[in-house]
Design brief:
- Helix content is about 5%, strand content about 35%.
- The protein has about 180 residues and is mainly beta.
- The protein has one domain: Immunoglobulin-like, CATH 2.60.40.
- Strands 5-10-11-1-2-3-9 form a 7-stranded antiparallel sheet, with no helix packed on it.
- The longest helix has 13 residues.
- The chain binds copper (II) ion.
- Copper (II) ion binds next to strand 5 and strand 10.
């Protein structure tokens, strides 16, 4: 017990142990609509590996199939007005793009840093297959939003912007510092 407390104190002081002090290593996702935030759908856990950031989903209640999955720039899942209409999770802003590439691409490409591999949802509405984001670390995505879209993702801005995935259906704020 004493040893555990000592180690925890050391981690806090160095801020260098696994899941460094203050960084959220998981996020709860909720259904979102133009009315706001709805039911909790589960969690996504983050793991820094030698290959990059692995996202481990444990989600229920999603539509089966392939969904666009991204880190968005703002730490909010609230609806906001977009083109004159209240729009689900619009306060999350666009894809996390700290290098201002303005380009939607693959998770291993040269575009938005927040572009992730698509999320696979099984026929029972559950998502448990991990995805790898080779250019990201857990520390990079703190104070951002993790987003699931209604449709798929073609990792391109053609023929529609941002992979053409459509409406935002689930969102979670990664609430670390
Ligand atoms: Cu998105």
């Amino acid at each position: 017990m004493t040893r555990t407390i000592t180690l925890m104190s050391l981690c806090a002081a160095l801020a260098a142990c696994a899941g460094s002090a203050g960084a959220a290593n998981s996020v709860t996702l909720n259904a979102v609509s133009s009315d706001g935030t709805g039911d909790a759908l589960g969690t996504v856990r983050f793991e820094d590996t030698e290959h990059g950031l692995v996202l481990h989903p444990d989600l229920r209640g999603l539509a089966p199939g392939f969904h666009g999955f991204h880190v968005h720039e703002n730490a909010s899942c609230e609806p906001a007005e977009k083109d004159g209409e209240m729009t689900a999770a619009a306060a999350a802003g666009s894809h996390f793009d700290p290098n201002n590439t303005g380009s939607h691409d693959t998770a291993w490409g040269d575009g938005h840093l927040g572009d992730l591999p698509g999320l696979y949802v099984a026929s029972d509405g559950s998502a448990t297959h991990p995805v790898l984001a080779p250019r990201l670390r857990m520390a990079d995505i703190q104070n951002r939003a993790l987003m699931i879209h209604a449709g798929g993702d073609n990792y391109s801005d053609m023929p529609k912007k941002l992979g053409g995935g459509g409406a935002r259906v689930a969102c979670g704020v990664i609430a670390g510092g």
